[in-house]
Amino acid sequence: MSGLSDYRSSEEHKSISRRSHWSGVKRKIDFDPRYRAVESSSRREDWFREYIQKMDDGKDSASREDSEKRKEREKRERQEASLRERKKEVEEARTNSMRERDRERESHLRREAEANFNALLTDAIKSEILSWKEAKKLLRKDSRWDGIADVLSRSERESLFDSYTAGLSKKAKEAFLKIINSNESITYWTPWKDVKEIFRDDPRFDKLLSSEKKWKSEYRDWAGERESKAKNNFGEMLKEKTSLMSSCVYFFGVWLVDYGVRAKRHSSENDTMLDDVLSTLKADIRYRALEPSQSKAMLEEFLQRLSD
């Protein structure tokens, strides 16, 4: 066996690395008989370089092997991560689907409970003036109450009750106003007691009187709105007749007092013209829609402004 080859099996060769130089190694093994057994100096160096090359090849091979293993490991890790992510997405989708089904189920139960409660209200509650406390005493007697109470909270039930009674109140008010407006003899200055007398035999009105205080207040509101509208319309009528009434005031010095007219008359012709003016005004429905004392006062005020 060659000297350098034999030296590979010795302990000293372990100090040789890929970065070792021949000059340095040669000094270390110069006195080794295995080294001297190789007579050619150039062969010794060639064997050394072959040895170093094998070390490089082994290192490169190990590096390539490590690189391939690393790539394989990274690929496997990516696959495992992708699989975990997919499982996570599937689980989230399943959870979301179950949550959505739960929401739909709950929504269906709530809609059903609301429908049942509204049906219960329709069957049991006939008056819009009934309080929630009073209504509950009636509603609890119905077998549907417990099932509804399991789904709808107390505040939700009360809110539905308020909406229901608000609807009853609206319908009752519409019915009340329809009754009032259907009788032309009722004006905004008609006293409430007279209104009750007018509809004494009307079953629709008799039903409303179960809460007379409420409807007396509603009547006052209706009368107030009618009065305000009548005054506005009367004022518009006077403005439309300004030219006619201005001529009357200018030529005859006319103004309205009490039920009739006081005028600085110069002839019967003046009276005729005045009668024509008043007839024209009274023929207008807006004149008749205002209470007589109010129409007189507004007319006097208007004529006074024209004469100033």
Rg: 56 Å
Order of helices and strands: HHHHHHHHHHHEEHHH
Walk across the major sheet and give the strand order: 1-2
> What structural class results from the helix and strand content?
mainly alpha
Number of strands: 2
DSSP helical segment count = 14
Overall 3D shape: elongated
Uncertain stretches of 5 or more adjacent residues: 254-267
Task: Summarize the model shown.
The protein is 76% helix and 2% strand.
Can you put this structure into words, describing what you see?
There is one protein chain. This protein has about 300 residues and is mainly α. Among the domains are: about 5-95; about 235-305. Helices cover about 75% and strands about 0% of the residues. The protein is built from 14 helices and two strands, in the order αααααααααααββααα. It has helices at about 5, 20-30, 35, 40-125, 130-140, 145-150, 155-180, 190-200, 205-210, 210-240, 240-250, 270-280, 285-290, 290-305, and strands spanning about 255, 260-265. It has a two-stranded antiparallel ribbon with strand order 1-2. A hairpin with a 4-residue loop joins strand 1 (about 255) and strand 2. Helix 4 (about 40-125) packs antiparallel against helix 6 (about 145-150). It is elongated and about 165 Å long.
Write the layout of secondary structure elements.
Layout: H1 3-7, H2 22-29, H3 33-36, H4 41-124, H5 132-139, H6 144-151, H7 154-181, H8 192-198, H9 203-208, H10 212-240, H11 242-252, E1 254-256, E2 261-263, H12 268-282, H13 285-288, H14 292-307
Antiparallel strand pairs: 1-2
Helix pairs in contact: 4-6, 4-7, 10-14, 11-12
